[in-house]
């Protein structure tokens, strides 16, 4: 006669029994529900740029209240999508368009220029097919930001990150 230890067998039987029982829904408000587009942002970008688009701007650029300025110029608009971490995101072009629009129009708030149009899946597909492949990404960003500031002078705060980055690269802490 084969004998099974009683506790492990009961544990398995209980687990099997519990897995087939209907689960009750969590009480209303007990679990926050995050919209899919915000979930994409949190997984792909939020770790560095912050849950609300606020980061340690001396290390990673803030998005909140600033990212919309990039739509002041065609080069700035393209830059946002051609960034490698954006262009190579494991999302469909439609999902990426939704996420970029969420970031720009939700976090960007007042920095979005009047009349700015949302990104489309077709535009995203075109831009991500040509991701930035340059070694000096910070230098390129600086040039894009200078163009954005030329078109939207109120965007000067975008340059704060570039100034801090230049200081770190020079071996000293920038203001």
UniProtKB/TrEMBL annotation:
Domain of life of the source: Bacteria
Signal peptide: 1-27
GO molecular function: electron transfer activity; heme binding
UniProt keywords, alphabetically: Signal
Protein name: Cytochrome C
């Amino acid at each position: 006669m084969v004998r099974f230890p009683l506790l492990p067998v009961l544990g398995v039987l209980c687990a099997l029994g519990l897995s087939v029982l209907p689960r009750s829904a969590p009480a209303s408000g007990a679990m926050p529900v995050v919209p899919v587009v915000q979930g994409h942002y949190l997984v792909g970008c939020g770790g560095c740029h912050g849950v609300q688009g606020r980061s340690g701007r001396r290390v990673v650029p803030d998005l909140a209240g600033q990212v919309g300025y990039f739509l002041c110029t065609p080069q700035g608009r393209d830059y946002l999508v051609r960034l490698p971490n954006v262009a190579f995101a494991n999302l469909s072009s439609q999902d990426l368009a939704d996420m970029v629009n969420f970031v720009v129009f939700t976090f960007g708030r007042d920095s979005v220029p009047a009349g700015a149009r949302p990104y489309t899946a077709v535009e995203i597909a075109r831009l991500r097919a040509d991701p930035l492949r340059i070694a000096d990404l910070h230098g390129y960003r600086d040039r894009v930001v200078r163009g954005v500031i030329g078109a939207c002078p109120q965007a000067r705060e975008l340059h704060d990150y570039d100034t801090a980055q230049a200081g770190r690269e020079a071996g000293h802490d920038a203001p």
